[in-house]
Amino acid sequence: MQRHPLIAAISLGLFAGAATSSALADTTPLEQQLKDLESFQVIAHRGASGHAPESTMAAYELAHEWGVDYLELDVQITADGELVVFHDDAIDRTSTGEGAINDHTLEELQALDTGTWFNDANPEKADAAFEGAQIVTLDELFERFGHDERYYIETKSPQLNPGLEEALVESLEAHDMIETGRVLVQSFEQDSLLKIRELNENVPLIQLVWYHTNEEDDSQLQEWTGVTPGPAEITDEDFQAIAEYAVGIGTNVTYDGNDVIDANFIRQAQANGLPVHIYTINETDEMQRLLDWGVNGLFTDYPDRLLELVE
């Protein structure tokens, strides 16, 4: 595989401190986006989902109002081929409907209430305005915030959403999100990321990983999809293999209450050209611990807490 052309440009010193003002003036928005990943990023997980129903316009409006760096979202495909912003494979948990999301048309899905559940689960945060909240399409999200926001998009369950990558790239191109440095695409599935790259090599990609204990030996850690060895066995070559197609890595920090990575993991990934973003961190003391480790960004349901720390 060939190294992402923009990663190669950075490695050649495009953004070195001694760069001339002329060179900086020639920096494209996409190149600037990748440079920005070296600094800390506040990533609103499914919007400000600790304060409003996840993946709804209300949650994204709140995160946007607070000035986060990225709106994080998952995309899936409806039965009639529309891209919608929704996390679960089934609609039961956060809507008044039942069944697999991609068994329903957009019209059927947007007739559902995806806000009242939040009020019921969080009476202290309940808001009548959340009642009747609709599932949002990707186009609607782009039309609402345009290039005033950056978007951190996961290709969700690609094996259940055939054609997802093609539809996503088509939408990103139609809304001019790639060359303007407005989007990152993330996935646990390496094949999904490689397919995105085949469709448009300029889409910045984030490889998600999830470390957990081995079912046969709970003293051993492994990665969910096998994209890397366990953290204790990971090598520079493993990180470099990811850096051939991705511009960063997203990972959990704990499993079953225990740390699965440490500050050395962060430094090793960064030394191999991969900024590290950690999911999903909601407690202030844990946010501070990871800031002290030098992570490049945190996914959080409470971006207000994180913004207060970093500002």
Please characterize this protein's 3D structure:
By secondary structure, the chain is α/β, with parallel strands linked by helices. The protein is built from 13 helices and 14 strands. The chain has helices at residues 5-11, 21-25, 29-36, 57-66, 106-109, 116-121, 138-145, 164-174, 190-199, 236-243, 263-271, 284-293, 303-310; strands spanning 41-44, 70-77, 83-85, 136-137, 151-155, 183-187, 205-209, 211-213, 221-223, 248-252, 254-255, 258-259, 276-279, 297-300. The strands form 3 sheets. An 8-stranded parallel β-barrel has the order 1-2-5-6-7-10-13-14, surrounded by 6 helices. Strands 8-9 form a two-stranded antiparallel sheet. It has a two-stranded antiparallel ribbon with strand order 11-12. Strand 5 (151-155), helix 8 and strand 6 (183-187) form a beta-alpha-beta unit. The longest helix is centred in the middle third of the chain and has 11 residues, at 164-174. It starts with a helix and ends with a helix. Mean pLDDT is 93; it is low at 10-23.
Q: Quick gist of this model?
A:
The chain has 311 residues and is an alpha/beta fold. Helix content is 33%, strand content 18%.
What topology does this entry show?
Layout: H1 5-11, H2 21-25, H3 29-36, E1 41-44, H4 57-66, E2 70-77, E3 83-85, H5 106-109, H6 116-121, E4 136-137, H7 138-145, E5 151-155, H8 164-174, E6 183-187, H9 190-199, E7 205-209, E8 211-213, E9 221-223, H10 236-243, E10 248-252, E11 254-255, E12 258-259, H11 263-271, E13 276-279, H12 284-293, E14 297-300, H13 303-310
Parallel strand pairs: 1-2, 1-14, 2-5, 5-6, 6-7, 7-10, 10-13, 13-14
Antiparallel strand pairs: 2-3, 3-4, 8-9, 11-12
